[in-house]
Design brief:
Blueprint lengths: L6 E2 L2 E10 L2 E8 L5 E6 L6 H11 L9 E4 L3 E5 L6 H4 L13 H20 L12 E3 L5 E3 L43 H4 L6 H17 L9 H10 L12 H7 L14 H4 L51 E5 L12 E4 L5 E7 L5 E7 L6 E2 L11 E3 L5 E6 L2 E6 L6 E5 L4 E6 L4 E6 L5 E4 L6 E2 L11 E7 L5 E7 L6 E8 L13 E6 L2 E2 L1 E5 L5 E8 L2 E8 L4 E2 L4 E5 L5 E3 L4 E5 L6 E6 L5 E9 L1 E6 L5 E7 L5 E7 L5 E3 L10 E3 L5 E8 L2 E8 L6 E7 L3 E6 L5 E7 L5 E7 L5 E6 L5 E6 L5 E6 L6 E10 L2 E4 L3 E2 L6 E5 L5 E5 L5 E7 L5 E2 L3 E4 L5 E5 L6 E6 L8 E5 L9
Helix pairs in contact: 3-5, 5-7
Length: 882
């Protein structure tokens, strides 16, 4: 105990204030500044690490956080806050009061606590010991949170304390996993188990404190600390003890599973805007607020972003005008990013699938008020994987390895929801934690978000020529959903129906609601609820137009006519619950075909620009087969004469193919048919003599990529039952036979044959990122097989091209470079070191001339390499011409 007059450096002790598990507290005077301060003294010397972390906390500057001025060898110097602690304010000094604060008294305190937590969490600082004894309420109503961030340094007392309001923040133990921190009555369940606690532990404690303020009772208590911890882990709150209006927020804060808890304390602000209500209350006014943030162009990234956060009541004020802007993608990101995307229900974050610079295909998350695009680590996905958000915008549900999984974007490993009986074709998650999803070849199925076995909700009707039920989307009541019946061919029109999770599969409503167009991202369909949840709008695609039509939820029927909103491409669109609409600029932008040399200089342009999506140069270097996107977003195969610069179509019905393989004599082409349910490989002579003929019928998408030099085989990629990419070969005999060559747990894609036919090249993700490999192509008794692999690329690679003499092999990297490897052909491959041909390849590479001196590329015209996202805030105003 220090006596008045004792000096600690420049601080003179005036009087004791109190003592607790963290040490002793004194009022002191700072002779340098002339102000009085609070000094907290610990029995232990602080470590250098402690000092560094405390200085980090001292950087906090917020009106609701007690300022930390200085740190000594065993003491802290803090702002002296006059007034009672929250525990004293509530009338709980040694006993629990039995009368809670009214809402109008409790909410201003709760808002200030939440503001303090939000400011600290934003800087990565977590309290971990939040409780009423660490909160002061000044006479003017200002709330101050004390001891911010310090609980991260201390640990639990070795013994139990009978007074559970006494903080163990500065106990003389070492912080770490397995050591319980915080005060037992306010600990989050993960803290009670001795696990590492993050900001979600603060959110739990906030909920406990708010519950106590409103109920007048401590939420968790027991005779000992152990009894209290057991209560935290096992008991559920008595929700009847708090006002009805407060329960949604408290339920979100007091989830025992941190993955399901409110993700950010900032998200509590809208939920703190409730008011006391009774049966006699008049309807409350609804308020709408919006936050708009933007950033201007940088050298490599020009981003204009905004975010609207809308708080609904029961009577709307005037709606803000619709705001339009674009979010361009950085040139370094692969063009696959943005082909599948979804805006979170709260309108704050945009999720997209695409290849990263590491060569892996995974989620990219972009907060609309930030410049950066964040990759979600440790989640690898297959091309075309479906995904959707949880209603609270915390989780993404997605398809991977034949399972439906979900991941908490705030951290933690993804967990399995259920096994998938086939490829997932869209899904939706309601507020009762029920998930519905479509399945290839089946109807809509349902499963609990927490996990379980899926059960059928709808049933495919073969009499209607249905192959699958697609893209279920919950309506506002969370019991009904809209979905498509039919095929899932991109560009096709699909009839839309209303289903119910409360009805047996063979008793679903058979009345057709409307038709919408399929996109490559899924069914072009969404539902946007009105604030009363009894009405809303169905958003759907007709051609390239996105329309919104009023919908009566109670009677499941459309009203009026569809109103055009924006133009949408084959990537589709997405809409949030807060009035944010995102669509993708057309992927069918124009490209200019051009020959360039190995220094990247343009030698000559070929023909006129066109909406090319892919292409491949013929073996003789005189022609190119290219795919052009048509008005329905389906593609057709065209032949380009690279000598004369002319072009002509080879198909006319929108095959939606994206790959082709030339015959060795440059006279025929094999290409894929992607018109579900009619998949397969077609071939045609370029002179059109026999028209288009079928080489292979398949029940799933196939992508032919190479024709063997002896004309006997066609390599192709086949999408497996779990959307996995496998490699097969088609033997071109009188009765074509398909042979599986590579069917591993990884995605593989074939790229070609060596000119002598001895080697097959492909890229695979078996190493965790895409690399280029070669394997001997062996044929015994007419049946093909593969030998042992040789790694071609280093540091990641995809696609590859052989020079016509077999002495050089080219491949792309995910950083945009074109690499070259010298090859000594023969029974074994002798490889040189990869060398850079071009550091930055402008446009898509379609192939080489036979000597490997010229490269045929498709350069984007006018638009950036990756078309931007189009964003509309308050899109409902577009219905009024706003």
């Amino acid at each position: 105990m220090l006596t008045p007059g004792t000096e600690l450096g420049p601080y003179e002790i005036i009087a004791p204030i109190g003592a607790g598990g963290m040490g002793e507290v004194y009022r002191a005077h700072d002779s340098r500044t002339g102000r009085d301060v609070a000094i907290k003294i610990s029995a232990e010397q602080f470590s250098e690490r402690f000092s560094r972390e405390v200085h980090a906390v001292a950087a906090l500057n917020h009106p609701n956080i007690c300022t930390l001025y200085d740190v000594g060898p065993n003491y802290l110097v803090l702002e002296l806050v006059e007034g009672p602690t929250l525990a004293e304010y509530l009338g709980r000094v040694g006993q629990v009061a039995r009368a809670g604060l009214p809402l109008d008294k409790a909410l201003p305190i709760a808002r200030q606590i939440a503001d303090a937590l939000d400011a600290a969490h934003d800087k990565g600082i977590v309290h971990r010991d939040l409780k009423p004894a660490n909160i002061k309420v000044k006479s003017d109503g200002v709330v101050k949170v004390l001891d911010f961030g310090l609980a991260r340094i201390g640990t639990e007392q070795a013994g139990e304390s009978a007074d559970l309001t006494n903080s163990p923040t500065f106990a003389p133990l070492v912080t770490g996993t397995g050591v319980i921190l915080g005060t037992a009555a306010y600990m989050a369940p993960e803290q009670a188990r001795g696990q590492v606690a993050d900001k979600r532990a603060d959110i739990w404690a906030f909920g406990v404190i708010l519950f106590e303020m409103l109920s007048g009772r401590r939420l968790f208590e027991g005779d000992t600390a152990s009894d209290t911890l057991a209560s935290v882990l096992k008991e559920e709150p008595n929700w009847n003890a708090v006002p009805t209006a407060a329960r949604p927020l408290l339920r979100r804060c007091l989830e025992k599973d941190p993955k399901r808890r409110l993700r950010d304390i900032g998200d509590a602000m809208p939920l703190l805007d409730f008011e006391a209500a009774s049966p006699r209350d008049q309807p409350r006014e609804r308020r709408r607020s919006a936050l708009l943030a933007w950033a201007t162009a940088g050298i490599l990234l020009a981003v204009a972003s905004a975010i609207a956060v809308v708080h609904f009541r029961e009577k709307a004020l005037s709606t803000p005008d619709a705001v339009r802007f674009e979010i361009p993608l950085p040139p370094a990101i692969n063009r696959t990013l943005g082909l599948t995307f979804s805006i979170s229900p709260d309108g704050r974050r945009l999720a997209s699938l695409g290849f990263g610079l590491d060569g892996r295909y995974h989620f990219h998350i972009r907060a609309l008020d930030a410049l950066e695009i964040r990759e979600v680590p440790d989640i690898d996905l297959a091309l075309g994987s479906a995904f959707f958000w949880s209603p609270d915008s915390r989780f993404l549900a997605f398809e991977a390895d034949g399972k439906l999984r979900s991941t908490d974007l705030s951290g933690g490993a993804a967990r399995v929801v259920c096994d998938l009986p086939g490829r997932m074709l869209g899904g939706s998650w309601n507020r009762d934690d029920v998930i519905v999803f479509g399945v290839d070849g089946r109807g809509v199925m349902r499963v609990a978000a927490g996990g379980g076995s899926p059960s059928p909700v709808t049933k495919v009707d073969p009499a209607r020529k249905e192959t699958s039920h697609i893209g279920p989307t919950f309506l506002a009541d969370g019991r009904h959903f809209i979905y498509g019946r039919g095929t899932y061919r991109s560009g096709s029109e699909v009839p839309v129906f209303v289903g119910s999770i409360d009805v047996q599969p063979d008793q679903q409503d058979s009345r057709e609601l409307l038709t919408t167009r399929m996109t490559q991202a899924g069914l072009g369909l969404a539902f946007a609820s009105a604030s009363d949840r009894r009405s809303g709008h169905v958003l759907y695609l007709r051609g390239r137009s996105l329309l919104a039509q009023p919908f009566d939820v109670a009677n499941q029927r459309l009203l009026g006519n569809g109103v055009p909103l924006v133009e949408a491409s084959d990537a589709g669109f997405s809409v949030s619950a807060t009035g944010v609409l995102v669509s993708k600029a057309s992927g069918a932008q124009n490209y200019q075909l051009a020959w360039i040399d190995r220094q990247g200089r343009t030698l000559e342009t070929i023909g006129e620009p066109g909406p090319y999506s892919n292409g491949v140069v013929s073996p003789d270097g005189r022609k190119a087969a290219v795919f052009k996107v048509g008005n329905t977003d389906a593609s057709d195969l065209w032949l380009v004469d690279l000598v004369r610069g002319t072009s002509s179509p080879l198909t006319f019905n929108g095959t939606s193919a994206i790959t082709a393989a030339w015959s060795p004599d440059s006279k025929q082409l094999a290409f894929g048919l992607q018109q579900a349910p009619a998949f397969g490989i077609l071939h045609t002579a370029i002179d059109g003599a026999r028209g288009v003929e079928t080489s292979l019928n398949a029940d799933r998408p196939v992508f032919p990529t190479a024709w063997s030099p002896d004309r006997r085989f066609i390599l192709y990629c086949m999408i497996g039952a779990r959307t996995k990419q496998d490699i097969a070969a088609l033997s071109l005999t009188d009765k074509p036979v398909s042979t599986m060559l590579l069917n591993t747990e990884y995605n593989e894609f074939p790229t070609g044959f060596s000119p002598d036919g001895r080697w097959m090249t492909y890229f695979s993700y078996e190493s965790g990122r895409s690399e280029v490999y070669a394997r001997p192509f062996l044929v015994e008794s007419g049946s093909p097989s593969l030998g042992s692999k040789t790694v071609i690329s280093k540091g990641g690679g995809f696609y590859s091209w052989w020079r016509s003499d077999g002495r050089e092999l080219f491949y792309n990297t995910f950083t945009g470079s074109l690499m070259s490897v010298a090859v000594t052909p023969g029974a074994t491959l002798t490889l040189g070191e990869p060398v850079v041909v071009l550091n930055a390849l402008e446009g898509a590479l379609y192939g080489f001339d036979p000597e490997g001196k010229r490269l045929l590329v498709a350069k984007p015209v006018a638009l950036p390499a990756a078309p931007p996202f189009n964003v509309v805030l308050n899109w409902q105003n577009l219905l009024k011409g706003g």
